[in-house]
Amino acid sequence: MAILETIGLAKRFGGIVAAADVTLAIEKGARHALIGPNGAGKTTVINLLSGVLEPTAGRILLDGRDITALDSHQRVRLGMARTFQINQLFLDLTPLEAVALAMSERFGLGFDCWRLVGHKGAVADEAAEIVERFHLADVMDERTAILPYGKQRLLEIALAFACRPRVLFLDEPAAGVPQAERHELLATIAALPADVTVLLIEHDMDLVFSFADRISVLVNGALFVDGAPDEVARDPRVKAVYLGEELDA
Amino acid sequence: MTPLAASVAQSLKRRARWSVLEIAFWVAAFASIWLLPQKHLILTETAILALFALSLDLILGYAGIISLGQAAFFGTAGYFAGLVAKYGLINDPVLALVCSGLVAAALGFVTSFLVLRGSDLTRLMVTLGVSLMLGELANRYSDITGGADGLQGVTVAPILGLFAFDMFGHTGYVYCLSVLFVCFLVARRLVYSPFGLSLRAIKGNALRSGAIGIPVNARLVAIYTLSAGFAGMAGALLTQTTAFCSLDVLSLQRSADLLLVLIIGGTGYLYGGLIGAVIYKFMQDWIATLTPQYWQFWIGLLLVVIVLVGRDRMAAWHEAARAALARFFTRALAWRRRPALGGAAPDGR
């Protein structure tokens, strides 16, 4: 059963078509990858799904409910969270503060202006879990701005995960991470709980094919091919427009 | 509980701990009641300015909303406090103060929707515009406000029916300092709460704030409203302690000076407005005795120096001074304890 569906989703910026008639179904618990050449509109799709952009046309359904008109923060409440291709972190907060903040919001404490962050024991307990899962325990009291890039990338996912999403969008989580810090990140992504549905955008084909159980290929804003990894890998059209490019490189 | 969960809980709790310097600051502030009786008039003005600056710090230092219109709330509540006292509508000053704050907060709530969108520049213009409009309204309806002559005939009843305001400002200072302290405590609770943390997140990255479930606009409306309430209480205090209110409470000069005070003291750590107010008022007082007409020259120079030296370098100096003071206090304490502990005392570090 599909947990998340888009029907004829489109986004135009003036005359430029960033996404055209994208109809996509993401199965519950799936490891779904969205791939495509640069400028294909992958991030636009995530921006539409997470509510950062308003679609020009089309609808988005979560569990069959139309969420097209909802704001970002309302979608988070309903169980969708995302990471960003370019880090969007709170540079002046510590990782622990940021995680505890996301936690507090999830527990509905966001308007509590009297008690301390972490006053509710569950906030501290779950924050500890997240900090541990994402290998941030040793840097949890540092300012985010001074963390190594690999740790910032982990925090990027940790913040989304702290919202306890049912659907998690990962926008190029491994982009730019140096080889030495890469393993920790990939292992963490592989270890995400099975009940969380993941939509992954990634250029690294090794990661895509080892992680995904379904792949959608986006070209020029439109859905090109959609299928199991081996089907997609065999598809000559995909090789032509996308994988060929990669192999040549 | 795992060891990590325990250290996480510890770390979260530690954020809001009172430091020695903070305690020293408030001890000194309250000690001035007895130690500086001849300075109570200027200290009253300082406490009012400090509360006003605290209100700006809440929106600028924490939520990142820059404003050139805090005087709108200061002045509106100032007139409100004056009018209710003049016509005997609310006789108890404390009740009148709270009501004035609520009136300003209501005005803040209504105008908050104007600052939700846009850049710093549009926010500056919108807040400035609102305060200019209110200033001219007060000028136009001079039958109510007294216009350019100011609001005459305000008599403020004794606080709680017990403490009458005196011409030396003794009662006024204790009153203003107490209100400042209470408001400061509220602000301090707030900034370490989930709400306060979400404001810092919004200031840092509004896009990501929405993406972790923070309703950004609702938070900005809330803090803008509260800030207006604090600014209003400062305005009401000025009216109550001077038994007078004139058009300059709504002036651009007042909002601009406020920004100056907060920048001198530094934003985003709550004490900036307080320290800035002390520096500003006492510099004004001291320089004005040397060159009565041109004292703002020196304030201007200070501002230029602050900007040139740069916030980062000043923060580094501040950190160094803080560390040195903390070392001094720890040493002093260790030295005091040493005889009791005998030879087993640590070396004072």
- Determine and state the CATH class of chain A: Alpha Beta
Arithmetic mean of pLDDT of chain A:
92
Query: Major sheet of chain A: order of its strands?
Result: 6-7-8-3-9-10
Question: Low-confidence parts of chain A, pLDDT < 50 over ≥5 residues?
Answer: none
How far from one another are the termini of chain A?
Answer: 38 Å
What class would the helix/strand composition of chain A place it in? alpha/beta
- DSSP summary, beta strand count of chain B: 0
Count of DSSP-assigned helices of chain B: 15
Can you tell me the CATH superfamily of chain A? P-loop containing nucleotide triphosphate hydrolases
Low-confidence regions of chain B: 340-349
Residues in β-strands, percent of chain A = 15-25%
Q: Give, in order, the helices and strands of chain A.
A: EEEHEEHEHHHEHEHEEHH
Distance between termini of chain B? 33 Å
Architecture per CATH nomenclature, i.e. the level-2 architecture of chain A:
3-Layer(aba) Sandwich
Subunit organisation of the chains:
heterodimer
In DSSP terms (H or I, runs of 4 or more residues), the helix count of chain A works out at: 9
The total of beta strands of chain A comes to 10
What is the succession of H and E elements of chain B?
A: HHHHHHHHHHHHHHH
The chain-level structural class of chain B is mainly alpha
Task: Tell me the helix content of chain B.
Answer: over 70%
